[in-house]
Automatic annotation (TrEMBL), chain A:
It comes from the Eukaryota. GO terms for biological process: translation. Coiled coil: none annotated. Keywords: Mitochondrion, Ribonucleoprotein, Ribosomal protein, Transit peptide. GO terms for cellular component: mitochondrial inner membrane; mitochondrial small ribosomal subunit. Belongs to the universal ribosomal protein uS9 family. Residues 367-391 are annotated as: Disordered. The lineage of its organism: Eukaryota, Metazoa, Chordata, Craniata, Vertebrata. The keyword Mitochondrion applies. This is Small ribosomal subunit protein uS9m. Its main location: mitochondrion. One of its GO terms (molecular function) is RNA binding.
UniProtKB/TrEMBL annotation, chain B:
It is found in: Mitochondrion. CDD domains: RPS2 (cd01425). Belongs to the universal ribosomal protein uS2 family. Required for mitoribosome formation and stability, and mitochondrial translation. GO terms for cellular component: mitochondrial inner membrane; mitochondrial small ribosomal subunit. This is Small ribosomal subunit protein uS2m. Its main location: mitochondrion.
Length: 391, 299
């Protein structure tokens, strides 16, 4: 059996060898009408068969698209003309047509139901669409413009070189001062708080060059060393970005007053499919009523009551507020979580900003994004697969 | 010079007159694309009129008629090399076999480099560098010594040439069109301030430059391999004064050569104009008048 297979294989391979350029695509046969013969007389129409061998198209190796300067200029002109046309179409003044107006106009004219925002029609300035590329690096005689061209990463290495030069200058200056005896330990200016170093992608964008992780780590280390030597100047600030404090974005509910003059605040919370709305009174005994029922009777399980207790316990205000809330949907744990979120949000209005930030860091003000995962076909549940049987 | 010459011959160096022929034949003019400039059409033909090409030929051939056109001998002396501690080598255990001809002796187990030979080699190397710079060649300073990386990059920038003191990517010279862009012009001379890399192995660029037929000038210490370097200069590459001296020498020589080129071109152009106006052309500049032409950089 094996021997015959081997011989079979040999025969097949021979056949393959004999026809090295067998194309896998089907051959197309074109029928062409015969040409009329030049000799007069009875003409015989002969059909000529012309076979056209269609082969697979050669897929060219992927190269990065290079956009010439002229191409980009043309795109910018087209964009500007298109902007004016769009303004005329929308009936607005072409001179004062901003990018927001363009976005609104495009969203109006080309409504798209696609979920992926980046797949929707967009009209932006070509600088934001076409990636930035370097112009030709050398002159007519072939000499490169930059002295570090032959390293491959000229912008990055020249940046490192300049930074190191600054470090040396600072050290020299410090040595001179120390020699004269004028050097004093200045307290480091704290203008670094609230800012972070550029991330690797931002640095790549700035230098228009690809960097490796080690390069980026080396850059950050060099910058830190520069900071150690002296006060941060403009040079260092250009590589830092400010970090927005998260808690400033937390919306705080306004305090309202009811008929008796009691101060209270309302807010909502959701967890899984449960929705809750809580009204927290500023002064109270610690009574909580849910859908008109006392919390002890509504939540017989200790775990749910602990969830309700958490925001107050965290702020040390256990017996000081009264709460009335309504909840619907979900199960017992989901309802407890929804009420907890609603109560925490309502409490924000009675509490200092620092305590709000603490609550945010404790996770009391974050809505839990976990929802039930759908069951998939071919599986028993969301993750559980059917029992695997070997045979 | 007499005792040095048999030593040169024993070290396998070419005899002097042959080298000059080789120099004249080998150094490519800027108008002719050499085999190294891979497909660079930009560097090639500027169609000169007849007078222009005559001027070009005269400008290029003039330095080759003199042994030391750029007067590099005055830039250094054996004494100045000694003061910069160029003669200090490594310990005898680190000695490379092929550096033995260049070593004067060993004192307390430390090798001492023969400065007479160093002076000869350095003069050749500086002269060659000057000629390359005169003919508008690209000079690349290569080193992988972190202590002097900043100094070498500054040197290269000051004389208008190029430096590479960073991690050397694999095919930078041998696969340049892919790594640096199609139509790139490769360096015409590579100067190694340190022939070894950070792990004490020969720098990849030594071998790659030899592969790409790029002449190299290299400062070889007692633990280096001088084989593939076209103009080896035995000397110390670890002490700061020595490296600073070499950087200063190369910078001076390159700036001087470029300045000389500008002056000679201006002079010949003036003479050409005078000739066109009917007056006979004046004699071209002789080495004797170099001192007057050298308005430029001092030591």
């Amino acid at each position: 059996m094996a021997a015959s297979c081997v011989s079979c294989g040999a025969v097949v391979s021979q056949r393959l060898l004999l026809r090295p350029r067998v194309s896998l695509a089907p051959r197309q046969v074109l029928w062409r009408a015969a040409e009329l013969q030049s000799v007069p007389g009875p003409q015989i129409l002969r059909l000529k068969h012309v076979t056209v061998v269609t082969t697979k198209k050669n897929v060219k190796a992927l190269r990065r698209e290079t956009y010439t300067v002229d191409f980009i200029k043309k795109q910018i002109e087209e964009f500007n003309i298109g902007k004016r046309h769009l303004a005329n179409m929308m009936g607005e003044d072409p001179e004062t047509f901003t990018q927001e107006d363009i976005d609104r106009a495009i969203a109006y004219l080309f409504p798209s139901g696609l979920f992926e925002k980046r797949a929707r029609p967009v009209m932006k300035h070509p600088e934001q669409i076409f990636p930035k590329q370097k112009a030709t690096q050398w002159g007519e005689d072939g000499r490169p413009f930059h002295y570090l061209f032959y390293t491959g990463k000229q912008s990055y290495y020249s940046l490192m070189h300049d930074t190191y030069g600054k470090i040396l200058d600072i050290e020299k200056h410090k040595n001179q001062l120390q020699a004269k005896g004028l050097f004093s330990e200045k307290d480091k200016t704290t203008d670094l708080i609230g800012s972070r170093w550029l991330i690797k992608e931002e640095l790549e964008e700035m230098l228009v060059e690809k960097l490796s992780d080690q390069d980026y780590a080396q850059f950050v280390r060099l910058m830190e060393r520069l900071l150690q030597g002296g006060a941060a100047g403009e040079f260092v600030q250009s590589f830092r970005r400010s970090v927005t404090v998260q808690s400033e974005k937390q919306p705080i509910e306004p305090v309202q007053h009811d008929a008796q003059g009691m101060a209270f605040s309302t807010s909502e919370g959701r967890r899984k499919s449960a929705k809750a709305e809580a009204v927290v009174y500023e002064h109270g005994n610690g009574r909580i009523k849910i859908n008109g029922i006392d919390y002890l009777l509504y939540f017989p399980v200790l775990q749910d009551r602990e969830q309700l207790m958490f925001p107050f316990h965290f702020l040390d205000r256990l017996g000081k507020h009264d709460v009335t809330c309504t909840v619907s949907g979900g199960g017992r744990s989901a309802q407890a979580g929804a009420i907890r979120l609603a109560m925490a949000r309502a409490l924000c209005s009675f509490v200092t900003e620092e305590e709000v930030e603490w609550m945010r860091q404790a996770g009391l003000l974050t809505s839990d994004p976990r929802v039930r995962e759908r069951k998939k076909p071919g599986q028993e549940g969301a993750r559980r697969k059917f029992t695997w049987k070997k045979r | 010079m007499a005792p040095a010459l048999p030593r040169l011959l024993s070290a396998g160096a070419w005899p002097r007159p042959l080298r000059l022929h080789v120099l004249q034949a080998a150094t490519p003019g800027p108008a002719r694309p050499s085999g190294r400039t891979l497909g660079s059409a930009a560097a090639a033909a500027v169609s000169d009129p007849q007078a222009g090409s005559d001027l070009q030929d005269r400008v290029l051939s003039e330095p080759l008629k003199h042994a030391d056109f750029f007067n590099v001998k005055e830039l250094f002396s054996v004494r100045s090399l000694f003061d910069a501690r160029v003669h200090l080598g490594h310990k005898a255990g680190c000695r490379h076999r092929f550096m033995e001809p260049y070593i004067f002796g060993s004192r307390l187990d430390q090798d001492i480099i023969d400065l007479e030979q160093t002076a000869v080699h350095l003069q050749l190397a500086l002269n060659f560098t000057a000629h390359v710079a005169y003919r508008k060649g690209i000079v690349l300073f290569v080193s992988r010594h972190r202590q002097f990386s900043h100094l070498i990059e500054n040197t290269a920038r000051d004389c208008g040439e190029y430096a590479h003191t960073r991690y050397f990517k694999g095919g930078l010279l041998t696969n340049a069109p892919l790594l640096l862009g199609p139509g790139v012009r490769l360096p015409d001379l590579v100067i190694f301030l340190h022939t070894l890399n950070n792990v004490f192995e020969p720098h990849v660029a030594v071998r790659d430059a030899a592969k790409m037929n790029i002449p190299t000038v290299g400062i070889v210490d007692t633990n280096c391999n001088p084989c593939l370097v076209t103009y080896p200069v035995p000397g110390n590459d670890d002490s700061p004064p020595a490296v600073q001296l070499f950087c200063r020498l190369f910078r001076t020589v390159i700036s001087r050569a470029k300045e000389k080129r500008r002056q000679v071109e201006a002079l010949y152009r003036l003479q050409g104009q005078e000739g066109a106006e009917g007056r006979g052309p004046a004699d071209p500049a002789l080495p004797g008048t170099q001192a007057s032409l050298d308005a430029g950089p001092s030591l």
